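Regression test case RT-17, inverse folding.

Input:
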């Protein structure tokens, strides 16, 4: 009789991608980790995925989430994709250090479970297939913060240290992140097949994406045009949400642009403290291609690249196809602006609409830029102003005279509102976070973990950012901006 496996079958895998998209991936195998240690398991997420959180929060979890033990039913594979990286087309990228274990049907639907940093794959090119502990913890923190902020994103299920070092600029501890996503299909996945002229494969992929993410479009007379529209809508909404929390993604390449509309790939990303329309944090973004204010422009550019791949499916006549696709791309700024304005009105506590609202918002942003004011704190303290005390927010704007003019205009505008002030203030506190993952806090947590093997700051920061809207005294320090000594902040590509 065979010895029963010490690992219970925690995962009820289904492999819809592997079934439907043969030829879109290669089998993969994790490299062994010498001494895996489970740093963190996202228990609520595990439960939502239908997994046994208690059983996984153990050495079993460490074995599974390092890639050492393949859970029953897993079918590890690396997906192929191409992508425009900083505007240059790279025909062959693919999962160079990630492997999909499979999909599970959780509370929120079908989700990919992927190990990132688990070793080389057929798409690794010159890379080592590994991930360093610092970037793994950064992705864990920031993706979970984004989720807590209500922004569509991939999630973090677990982080495991491997017990092995990897070489970056120096010897650093290695780790594996378990990433959960609605899917890992990117604009770059379409580009891979379109660039090779494989229209049948593009169609197969589009049909799969429609079935998985946009099933309502299946019966539409123009499903591929509608798909383009649906992804453009999802991305317009997503980038508007980023803008509303001061998030700079940093590497909005087409291979980092999902078809599902989830934020993916937390490499050189950062939240801004002081508001700057042109904020860039990434050390490699020398031209400011992915600067804060350029994000909607780049999202539109990425949607144009998606449109190109779909043209032969949209209409057999090339000119007709172009005409249809162009209309969707041309409408992107309008879509984006609508989402942006709705969200910004909510941040200002405005439920009604007024033609002067866009100008009112831009005026505030201009004053914030002029005064180097903290983006998150200004919005958060506006609710205190609604409750009757304007001083805290005035202090953030250095008591500037034009801010007093702005306050007067905003007060006049608020007279159009019908709901009681206390309700509006409470609603504002549900959209203007008190706590974001501030760069100095993230850096401190990563440094403690990588240099001192001290994970307490990571866990405390995680607790703070996963409750971003609550006014909790124990996390008050996490609401504060960086001390002046922190200086200008630069991020490095998170490999
Ligand atoms: P990213 O900058 O993380 O979006 O990655 C861009 C491409 O480089 C993707 O195809 C990755 O799979 C690949 N890549 C990044 N880091 C590594 C690594 N350490 N080993 C192999 N491939 C990598
Ligand atoms: Mg990527």
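Golden output:
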């Amino acid at each position: 009789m065979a010895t029963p496996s010490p690992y219970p079958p925690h995962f009820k895998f289904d492999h819809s991608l592997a079934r439907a998209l043969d030829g879109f991936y290669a089998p993969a195998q994790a490299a062994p980790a010498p001494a895996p240690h489970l740093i963190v398991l996202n228990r609520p997420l595990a439960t939502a995925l239908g997994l046994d959180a208690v059983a996984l929060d153990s050495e079993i979890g460490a074995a599974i989430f390092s890639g050492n033990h393949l859970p029953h039913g897993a079918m590890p594979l690396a997906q192929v994709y191409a992508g425009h990286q900083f505007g240059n087309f790279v025909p062959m990228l693919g999962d160079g250090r990630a492997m999909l274990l499979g999909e599970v049907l959780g509370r929120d639907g079908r989700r990919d479970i992927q190990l990132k940093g688990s070793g080389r794959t057929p798409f690794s090119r010159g890379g080592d297939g590994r991930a360093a502990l610092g970037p793994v913890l950064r992705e864990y923190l920031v993706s979970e913060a984004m989720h807590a902020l209500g922004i569509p994103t991939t999630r973090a299920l677990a982080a495991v240290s491997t017990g092995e070092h990897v070489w970056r600029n120096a010897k650093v501890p290695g780790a594996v992140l378990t990433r959960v996503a609605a899917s890992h299909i990117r604009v770059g996945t379409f580009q891979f097949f379109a660039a090779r002229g494989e229209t049948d494969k593009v169609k197969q992929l589009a049909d799969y994406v429609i079935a998985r993410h946009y099933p309502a479009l299946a019966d539409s007379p123009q499903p591929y045009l509608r798909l383009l529209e649906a992804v453009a809508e999802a991305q317009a909404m997503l980038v508007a949400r980023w803008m509303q929390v001061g998030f700079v993604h940093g590497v909005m390449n087409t291979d980092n642009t999902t078809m599902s509309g989830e934020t993916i790939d937390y490499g050189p990303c950062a939240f801004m403290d002081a508001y700057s329309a042109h904020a860039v944090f990434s050390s490699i973004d020398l031209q400011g291609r992915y600067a804060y204010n350029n994000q909607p422009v780049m999202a539109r550019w990425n949607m144009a690249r998606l449109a190109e791949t779909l043209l032969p499916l949209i209409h057999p006549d090339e000119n007709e196809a172009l005409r249809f696709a162009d209309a969707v791309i041309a409408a992107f700024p309008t879509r984006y602006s609508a989402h942006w304005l709705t969200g910004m009105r909510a941040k200002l506590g405005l439920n009604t609409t007024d033609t002067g609202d866009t100008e009112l918002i831009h005026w505030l942003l201009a004053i914030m830029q002029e005064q180097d004011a903290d983006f998150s704190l200004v919005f958060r303290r506006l609710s205190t102003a609604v409750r009757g005390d304007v001083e805290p927010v005035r202090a953030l704007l250095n008591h500037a005279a034009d801010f007093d003019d702005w306050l007067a205009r905003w007060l006049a505008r608020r007279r159009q509102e019908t709901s009681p002030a206390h309700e509006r203030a409470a609603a504002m506190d549900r959209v203007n976070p008190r706590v974001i993952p501030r760069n100095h806090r993230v850096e401190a947590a990563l440094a403690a973990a990588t240099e001192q093997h001290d994970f307490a700051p990571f866990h405390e920061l995680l607790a703070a950012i996963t409750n971003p809207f609550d006014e909790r005294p124990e996390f008050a320090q996490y609401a504060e901006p960086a001390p002046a000594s922190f200086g200008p902040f630069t991020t490095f590509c998170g490999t």
